[in-house]
């Protein structure tokens, strides 16, 4: 996946300006940044839903386009159909070209749904009503939907938002295992990055229209984030966590786990 001199805008406002980066195939990338930094806008652009103001974007060596089956997407908020719809029917609703109400999906479609459920260990949810499922169980079904077309890229927009800490880590580990087994590139945005630490390969940090891509040790530092924000920023590590704060005691911009880290970076 690559972006070359890409500028993205939303509602007439430039969100990301002249971004260039390359993400190796098979990488697990945590996408960070404050609300409004451009995380969702970036995902929409990679899906071909929002054209770039300038620049070029490629996935698997091909220009980004809408409806690319190589890209699986889990949106930030998804209204789930409840009632007596089963987990199997919910996953099947995302089959390419299918709509709710069709009684027959074909042998290949049924096999794809069964395989996707198995991939996320959700076979036991297949016949259960969606309305009775927990947040974590519903997230497993949403993840199964993204796998139906056997994508090489997954864009996951804050998939941990509604989960408790134990389910967060469990979900990230499941995604990490899937990504490794299938050599998928994963971009996962997160409000709480803690569960991703130790599993992601790179951090993509968005701020003030700019982007910084690198390892956690390269990106989550006082020097790097001060340069990115264009203002003094302090990275303070305490109690096994790291806080990114505005110099002078401003509110936290981002919080991370950092077991074993020193006092400052």
Considering the chains and any ligands shown, give keywords for the structure.
265 residues, alpha/beta, Rossmann fold, 3 domains, six-stranded mixed β-sheet, four-stranded antiparallel β-sheet, 7 helices, 28% strand, ion transport, zinc, ABC_transporter-like_ATP-bd, zinc transport, nucleotide-binding
Report how far the terminal alpha carbons are from each other.
Answer: 30 Å
Number of DSSP helical runs: 7
What is the name of the CATH superfamily of the largest domain?
P-loop containing nucleotide triphosphate hydrolases
Gyration radius (Cα, Å) is: 19 Å
Task: Please state the overall shape, judged from the principal axes of the Cα atoms.
Answer: globular
| Low-pLDDT segments | 257-262
CATH architecture type of the largest domain: 3-Layer(aba) Sandwich
**Largest sheet features:** 6 strands, mixed
| Widest β-sheet, arrangement of strands | 6-7-8-3-9-10
CATH domain class of the largest domain: Alpha Beta
| Overall average residue pLDDT | 86
Helix proportion of residues, in percent? 25-40%
CATH topology of the largest domain: Rossmann fold
SSE ordering: EEEHEEEHHHEHEEEHHEEE
The strand count comes to 13
- The proportion of strand residues reads 25-35%
Keywords: ATP-binding, Ion transport, Nucleotide-binding, Transport, Zinc, Zinc transport
GO biological process, one term: zinc ion transport
Pfam family, one: ABC_tran
GO molecular function: ATP binding; ATP hydrolysis activity
